[in-house]
Write a structure and sequence with these properties.
about 425 residues; alpha+beta; Beta-Lactamase; Alpha-Beta Plaits; six-stranded mixed beta sheet; 13 helices; 16 strands; about 40% helix; disordered C terminus
Length: about 425
Amino acid sequence: MSVIDLEPTSERALFGPLPGWSLQSVVAWILNEGRLIAQPTRLLEGLVNELRSAGAPVDRMIIGVGTLHPQIETWSVIWSAKLDRVEYWTGERGIFDSDSYIGSPVQAVRERGEIVRRRLDDIGADDASIYRDLVADGMTDYIAMPLPFSDGHRNFASIATRAPGGFTDEDILKLTTFPLWLGPIFEAIEQRNVAVTLLNTYVGSQTGHQILQGLIRRGDGDMIRAAIWYSDLRDFTMLNEQLAPSEVIAVLNSYFELVAAAVTARGGEILQFIGDAVLVIFRAPEDSDIRDACSAAVDSAIDALAGLAVLNSRRSRAGQPPIRFGVGLHVGAVTHGNVGSLDRLGFNVIGPAVNRTARLENLTKEVGVPLLMSPELARAVDRPTRSCGFFAMKGVAEPQEVFGLVDGPLDPRSVRTTSNAA
């Protein structure tokens, strides 16, 4: 492996003339068309087409970018002549500790800012595995270079060729200018990726999309129809007293992960984690029957409680206390909007239906069932339900009837069965 020591992008490389393929035509495409392409796979596809049309000896090209994501450390777009298509690849967190990364040219580029050029005609057993893979694909030469962003992070671009004899000196001079042209474009793509990731992570994908579309003023919002989920962890105060902080966090994360997997699989959107509670909505589009949202909410609750039984079986074998939670489900119209101070806002759902849902969840402790529904939601689903009686609810003038599933663990005081298949 050789490290190239080049002058910062020379005028000769930028403005030529240089023998061989035309750098200027490729750069003209980047500045006029490429910079307007927001999809990294399409951008790389167009770039490779321009390079090869200009006569550049490019048979494999990769752009790799580090990212800010809870699970993903880096993403890459990869083109090869062998497959003749662009693939999108992600590396999970910890990838930079792997054997494939340590000692690789990517490490030299990212961590030391080196431009690495490696002719592939004398690869040995001690060389990085990437070089052996390139030789197996018929490559003769390889170059990897930093793709710096304005925040100081170094990403990378690599190009390989099958040309006999590898790259010429003029090829190297031209190719090493590409970070200048591509860096700002991929930085803009990654900045949007980060914005989307952060919004999806902290406010949910549907709300995040609304924010990116400009719904950011205080008071902005819509009246929506939705099935509403409110769940709350049981015995959380006791767990806080008995367990170490790290164990409490582990319990919370197990509970939140269980709920998230169940509700998001059926279109639910987690709006808030409130201490040990979770608030979720299942939106009903204006032209859609509310029954679909209600069924999705009930099915999600069934999935979550079934998953809880499996989780608690594992916890029991490990000598850990069980996790228990209750779920309240209701349906109604709510205001979904932007509330807060002038410079600190949050999306929330507001309305009597939200309060009613929280009261239903609280009643699961008194009734002794893990899932309770309002009459309105019970009537909207095709599963048989049973009345658990009438109960007082805080803030509600009259006692309210609540329902549970017939095929669930119901309170012995249940007095009558209602068929809701209509």
